[in-house]
Fold each of these.
Amino acid sequence: MDLRNMVLQAPIGICLLDAPSLEIEIVNDKFIEVAGKTYEEIAGKYYWDTFAEARQYYEEALNKVAEEGIAFFADEVELMLIRHGKEENIFVTFVYAPLRNADGKVNKIAVWVLENTKQVLARREIEKVTDKLNIVISASDLATWELNVKTGEVKYSDKYLAILGYEKEVKLTHQQILKHLHPDDLPRREQAFKDAFVTGSLHYEARIIWSDGSVRWIEGRGRVFYDEGGNPSYMIGTVRDITDEKDFTTRMERLVEERTKDLMLSSESLQKSEHRYHLMVEEVQDYAILYLNREGIVENWNTGAEKIKGYKAEEIIGRSFFNFYTAEDRQNNLPQSLLRKAEETGRAGQEGWRVRKDGSRFWASVVITAVHDEKGNVIGFSKVTHDLTDKKRTADALKKNASELEQKNAELEKMNKELQSFAYVSSHDLQEPLRKIQTFASRILEKEYDKLSEHGKELFDRMQGSAKRMQALINDLLAYSRTHNTDRKLEDTDLKDLIGQVIQELKEELEQRKASVEMHESCRVSIIPFQFYQLFYNLISNSLKFSRPGHAPHITITSQIIEGSKLGNSLLSVQTKYCHINISDNGIGFDPQYSDKIFELFQRLHGKMEYPGTGIGLAIVKKIVENHDGIISANAERDKGASFDIYIPVS
């Protein structure tokens, strides 16, 4: 594809300027769209005549590109442009990139531009929503926290410190926070986190101990977010002080128990207890407190119940408490289940939607406690309901905001993929001028070699070496970009055949180094053949490249199907079978501390003059393994060789 077609078909706006005249020679539709002008207003015109509004800000940068050949990059800058005859403020990311002729002089300037007005404005809108949400949270009794599961780093709001009993701002680690938990409640909290890593949701209640020795109750809720491998990555959540609720519930349960015992003593004591109980309950307006018989019929009703549920006592006493539940919950027998649990365990708690007399819904926290006679028989139930609708709405708003953030992240990922695609096309076209450089250099050395000084010959040798390294880098980058292909066409393949093809390809180098490749067991597996060919090629080439001086390279390759439970690797599923591939050699090895670093893009452990390469080969290998939902690890010692273990799941 020539340069003109590349510009015209690019997915982002591009125009090509002549240097130094700054006349616009080529412009594509995307650029015209961003500029908000017609083709006739741009093509062939002096650049600053077309974009006079931006001249005072970026003329110096463009001149520097033309004069010094140094690219200029601006990210998400705000510009006022005349588009379609009107002034508009837009946000753009653009690059002034120099293009050189065969003599190395800047003769063209490529202007790449991407409008991101919608993204910037959307992000600002999200920030506004987040600020409003923070105001709501600050006004409530909720404290917020974030936990990095992998590093243990924790972030929290000022309210969080207040709940832990701190009057001024301090910096606490995750372990320092855990020290505030009551020792008896630590197992409950740990189990809640284990369950959350499986279900994605966290909920627990526990006691905390302040520095002055006082004990408080807290309720923790949160959500787990996972990395690409499905492992817990970080958590966000809330904490609130429920000491008053706990104290109230405990007092109420104790009072109910005391009154129930009094009822059994005598008729006179019963009347007195009932009278005190009714007086106490009637005074409570923030909680609905009622008494149910064994069948769930309402027999007692307080002012708080009338306020929350909307029924007067005479309208509901004698009717079933099923009336407070939604049709769905009644159909699923939730009321009966709660009574049965309270009868069996003594207590049943639940949160969910309930229905008022007028049909409206509210979010309720309910505790049902079994009432026993002196013989231990259940004679009824006390039921305490707290209206948590406002807190429920706050929690829902947090979830909605998280969902919106996920959507924005998805949009950003889409944009990144488009930019990657453009980089892939661009890297193809970079090879054409590079080949010309290599060809012209070769011709000069062939025909003009005797006319060059020794220093000139040395410079030409260095130039050719640099061109070869750049060619290798471009080829490796192209190979790496191909491993991002989401079109996974798996084929049932015998790994022995692929390895044989690679050995044949490297036959000359193997013979030159007197190297040997030893293959043992081999298995068939569903893979993308050309990617695994690249994988074996890179690993065997590495073994040859990093062989020990004076030692003939010896490479051993094995592959076999093994149950995950027998591999002893915590990252693997014990219920899955894996094709385990091992490739080891007797080369120079490396320090074990770099076992993970070697798979990173452009990472090199040796000088490029001592051991040539681009630092991309093992990154390509790792990407290919990840494309097959597998994992790879490396083990080595200095001067004792290296070993690579690959695990690919099989059906």
Amino acid sequence: MGSAQVPRGVGSQLRLPAEHARRGAFFAAALRASAFVWFAACPLSIASVAATSSAARPQEELERTIERVERGLVPRVRALGRDDSPRELSQRMRELAVPGLGVAVIEDFRVSWTRSYGVREAGGSNPVTAETLFQAASLSKPVVAAAAMRLAAAGKLDLDQSVNERLVSWKIPDNEFTRGRAVLLRHLLSHSAGCTNGSVGSYERTAELPTLIACLNGTPPSRPRPVVVDYEPGSRWRYSGGGYSVLQQLLIDVSGKPFVEVMREQVLEPLGMRHSTFAQPLPEALAARAAAGHDDAGKPLAGKWQVLPEAAAGGLWSTPPDLARFLNAWMQSHAARSEDWLEPSAARAMATRQAGSWGLGFELDGEGETLCVRHGGSNAGYRSYLVAFPARGQGAVVMTNGDEGSELAREIVRALARENAWPDDQRVVRELAPEPPVLDESWVGDFEYAPGWVLHVSLKEGKLHLGLNEAPATELLAESGSRFFTLANTDVEFARDGEGRVVELRVTRDGESAPTSARRLP
């Protein structure tokens, strides 16, 4: 996640700590994965098309493939006994209030096809095209990681050298955790440095913007707390946008150049990413081609988008085709098909586990022929996702301009995975309770899990629904007498007191091991 703020309608104005912001952004997407919101401004038909084909893949065959993907969207969960018919992309865009998106697909180590849908801003008529810029959010991180790996391969950085030995303008504050073990570049790239600030701050376009060093120090007008180390570097994994802010300053100090110039020289220009920039704020010359960000109800953000001075963590503006070029170039290096941009050893190091399931810039799954790298992105008003299978030379990038775009992006990738037999995004099969519990008003109430973050349980037409703050609610499906789930694979357990009154919700995200507790409000 690039920004610590949560979209409007789910508490963005509260400026909560990053941990609450991450959970809030998740709840906003996960709870609404199957909620229906009619978004009249989003056209029912495809807005624009850009596709390429080769002699080995005739255009007619490619069009049939794309049509199957567009009509084959399914949620994360398959609930046995419930209608599980695939839905169309245009339908899901309306349901999730996502005005526009772009897709780029890689096949056999080449960008095979791209396609664009919807509009750049709700209520407008300007279509999304292959040249429309989106905020890439945390997809920025693997791009920055690749720049660091190029500098390491050139001998200008060392993965296993203390970064404080190379930092000039700012140093990681020394404390009891860093005295025994220094923070290494390897730690920053793999989210194992112990750096605080899981997310970084974003700011209105009219606001006074902090410098990068002010952000690192946590001094006004920056918003997050200072970046410090609060556990022994290298001892465990924890996602840290703040760690990538340290990396941003490191790249500036080592090169003696502005960060925007470093990224242009190391990645964007060599790979022909002509529609991409790390410039923050976005230059006016490019603003005319940018998609506006939208909240979870499909309303444009105030000022259309926000600014992220900590650009390494989430400040890249890009397009799906440009990011697909990056992803394909990385796979070419990983497979030793090309050494022009990145040395194969550096590319392979990025896909080697360092901490938990993470490599250097990518999250990893599988190994060998089934190795998969992925990363998600979440800024206010924008959601994105990339996935690649380097042994196969296959992958995809999806970028959206809506706060509900995360689930939509995963549904698109899920359809692509089924079409191309990718070993990724496999569905979860869940069983409904054979005897559903009796639902009445005793289940209904408001439950707070952080100040200002309220989960609303309601009963509509005999079915329980769960919503977060002002966001529309999604249906809860009963798995047992007290446990429910959503089609996004979020589990909700209702805990009662000795008098049978529901006093707590225990909510577990897809894949999480520990639940989040939300206590009933008076």
Amino acid sequence: MTSTTSWTPPKDCKDRPVAILGAGVLGRRIAACWASGGYNVRVRDPDAKTRADCLEYAKDHAATYPAAQTREGPAGHVEVFDDVASTVDNAWLVIEAIPEKLQLKIDQFAELEKLAPEDAILATNSSSYKSSEMLAKVSDSTKSRILNTHYYMPPQAMIVELMTDGHTDPAIIDFLAARQREAGTSPYVARKESTGLIFNRLWAAVKRETLTILAEGVSVPKEIDDMWRELMLKNGSGPCASMDGVGLDTVAFIEDHYVQERGLSAEKTSEWLRKNYISQGKLGNKSDNGGLYPRPARILALDVGLAAPETSMGEGYVLQFAPDGKTEKTILSKQSLPDGIDVDHHSGRMFWTCMGMPGKGDGEILSANLDGSDVRTVVPKGTINTPKQLTVEPETRKLYFADREGMSILRCDYDGSSLEVLVRNGDWQADGFEDQTKWCVGIAVLPKLGKFYWTQKGFSKSGKGRIFCANIETPATGDCASRDDIQLVQDKLPEPIDLEIDTTTDTLYWTDRGELPFGNSVNRAKLDLATGLFAKSEDGKAPYEVIVRHLNEAIGLKLDQANGHLYVTDLGGSLYRCNRDGSGKERVYSSEDRALTGIALY
């Protein structure tokens, strides 16, 4: 059951406190999380010594928490109180971390309904109880803003699990997850109500089987722990990835044996696997159809060729990488400054741009099979100036691309026919192309909104970069140089480069190679489908998030929506993978002899 109310985010969150009820070992650590992210925190506890210990802990440790290392602006401060009313006054978020006694929590939420602001989000840190068990004394409207937020043990474990009470407005989950990231935590959302949420259910099974092994005399504690450390902590992956590695058909066969020997139920184990995966040919890593995870994407990336000891304009490469980045293979060489690449999965062909020399008009667009065979010219030299990012639009079989010094956005058919200029900011042949604020670099298309987006980077690290959008259908009035449907999406960016759109969440991502603190980064913003612009926050601003930092001249990016990943390249020769929210960043490939630009997945 979900809420039917229309939830509005609490106003001025940064100017309002986070309230925590309970200053014990975990409560004080939750306080340090939020303070490290720049939020002011009020903590209530009836015991004076516990309050004093909480203040001392926050003073000594908040600066060591993850958010303190990336936060922009001052740290928040922590105050302690002995009464609930003072603690929750004007709070936008209230987290109860009181003892795990259900009646205490039921009474606590009834009190919060009376004392806390009407727009405050009300959360329980409990994993033993679902928040739906705590609603007996609150109204239906209050139920829509209550949920579980279960913290583990910060700063050693920064995971927090979010779970609905069965009535929680879904927008609250998204909103609070974003704020949790500001506090340096890694939020995970339970898709439905579950006692124990996610990890504690997994851990409960491990504990039960460990005790059974001990009770049956099969092993001893030290051996169990040593094996766990060696197999799961040192060399292992998660349980789902491990099952995919073994093969789901093998996993089901083994589980059948346990079911038969122990008299267990197969409904939610081997039978579930056969019905939902094995019967569909999803056997794991050995199957083209994948398994519990979709088959990992292979990576195509372009090396512009400028980082090698002896550089020239014709020493670029099209490279192929294994999903883990460990295997590198050259598909094509002798490319003239390759920059943008994308794949049409239906035809199995890749398309890429070669910039050529600015001002000579010798840029071109090429295509080939994914193994590098059957290379064809799509847009020949002499037609465009310096083509940059390119994106495939499979429904209409169109290529969209940006021409940097050509100061234009163009599109054509897969074979290069029907070439048309969609946006033109100037005539480079007549007037020159020195004004870099007119240079077009990145391009992305959102067909369901009927719009395309592009970046104009500005002078290097000038803070004059911009993102624009326009309708896919060119207006009947005006032409590419004077169309009246162009909208400014965001300005005052350091130096925006490539774009990508997550069509499942209507979120625009972009790389920026400009100066810190906002440059050398990956950024994202939610799109408002009614306007095509950035969705506005409660204070009327159109914010965007910096989700990945510390890149070396960030260029290419690509979303792996099936696996929830984002890949990024930089001119420093590195390829990164992270989660779509920017967490879990890892360098999967790096070479000082490479300068990576465009990236595609297949």
